[in-house]
Protein 1
Amino acid sequence: MTLYYTLCFGLLMSELLLFTTIICPMPFAMRKKMFHFLSENPVVAKVQYALKITFIFVAVLFIDALQRMVRIAQEGAGAKMKNEMPDVRTETNYAARKFYAQRNLYLTGATLFLSLILSRVFYIILDFIHVQENYSTLQQRTAKASGAAGESEELRKRIKELEAQVESGKAQGRDFDNLKKQAAQQNAEYNRLADEHAKATGSTSNKKHD
């Protein structure tokens, strides 16, 4: 295997490892930290940019492997049409070339296909994390709003109780004012009667002395 196909195989193994890591079960908090790190870290962003360029070269290798495989298949079909009796060495060489062409085609094709799946799954899980965070935030706001509504209802009840107490206090105040007025009137009436009684008593005493 040549150097670039060896690198392509290493890239394929790395993709399989990363894909297994992101889909394996783990706590939500750990998954959120990992995905936020992969999506926001500047070093990871540079690595992703380099991988995009690498996948362009892998796509070129895929096209080259596909062309070789088609050419080898055409050679085999042409040899069968000529009805020639190939020797063992030629047949072995043809089988080896066909095997290498198929191997390179499957290797580069699997690398490209897995990169597309990996990218799609990564962004689906990232969107799911964002939706979960928004849902948690909405739940907290709803809980706070419910608590505020409960407190506001309690405050309304307390205000009504205080208003009732103020009204009762005003009623008691009005009753007290009425009692004061009645007491003042009774006191004035008592003083008037006392004065009349004193006058009447005084005049009677003067007549007896005469």
Protein 2
Amino acid sequence: MNTFPKGFLWGGATAANQCEGGYREGGKGLSISDICTGGSRTQAKRITPELEEGTFYPSHEAVDMYHHYKEDIAMFAEMGFNVYRFSIAWSRIFPNGDDCEPNEEGLKFYDSMIDECLKHNIEPLITISHYELPYNLTKEYGGWANRKLIDFFMNYCTAIFKRYKGKVKYWLTFNEINGAMGKLGGFLSLGILNEGTKDFMNQEDDPQKRFQGLHHQFVASAKAVQLAHELDSNYQVGNMIIYATTYPLTCKPEDAIAAQKQNQNFNYYCTDVQVKGQYPTFAQRVWDDNNVKIDIADGDLETIKNGTVDFISFSYYMSSCTSADPAKQGEGNLLGGTPNPYLEASEWGWQIDPQGLRYALIDLYDRYRVPLMVVENGLGAIDKIEEDGSINDDYRIDYLRKHIEAMKEAIQDGVDLRAFTPWGCIDLVSASTGEMAKRYGFIYVEKYDDGSGDFARRKKKSFDWYKEVIASNGEKL
């Protein structure tokens, strides 16, 4: 049937570092996001190893969900959410990352936030690590390139798995783990800050550190899955990837091979490890091409084999084309590639391709045969408040409508899809550009790139539209 199954999870998604604020409240320590300045489409955000007086750091206040979460969750409930994906800030639980005991104030904050969700019959879907590594683990240990982070991560997982047992069912280990396949992930995903790095979009790169750090995350994720299953048989743990639909630019065979290779490297490398429990057959070629040699400790491969995830979750925003001809490789989207001449793009150059989501769902389900969740999808745009106070974001409604229609088609194709949580259900700080002007939410927050704003919340037109979508289980679009 071309319908969403009964019990389908409808909701939205955020990340602590992009919405919470309260960066020094409740005993929280600095995270890697807290040392990133604001930016824009024309000016990249910077990474400052030490906080600079007079510099605007958007994550420090973000949209102040730390003080508004009850109001925000009530608005999510009004839309009809039955799931809310959010992240726990690691540095709110272990301020330095290597602390011996967790911070009780931080644990209590998420107790309250989870309880607020449950009060409104909203299922928490929690990301354990979402671009918010405690900065001390970067500064003193070199980020995930250091194997010691596996133990620090497990201390963190133990604390939250035990604390929230009986309240939480769904967990995700690392947000967009395959982002580390590209140089941007060196800092964002792995907390590796190489000397000389200042410009967030042009980080100094060290592939050896990146791939070693990714291996450590694979081991940590597998250990976390095993721990979760031991502590609570009700726990379901998923991975989380960026799915980047890639088409060959032309029907030239070399372009088709280039697209296949990109798909393997970006979409399958990490997912094979986390779902199949082993490195893919092409892993050695990836390592050789990047001139890296992975240090795999005794027992690592067995740990990975025994710690496979229960489901796949992924973000999908855009697609791109690729070519074997370097001269034809342009700057298509955030992830590189070449723009597709058949597609329109957002104001930030992200090409809009609903059919690419259907492609992603079919591809992942055919390859892995485990349940899927679309946990990020949405349109970053400039929203205007009209004189009457309304915000008519028809462009966002159109974007989401077409992607939901694509999900319907994938379900009819036989895909086991369980959830849809559009990104930035409430406005938040953009991870890629560090700005507020790039808005995603159904809820507008009066916070601006110059630091002004009183954090007032107001509904956009898409709020009532999505409310009707959920009430009809995806039938009224």
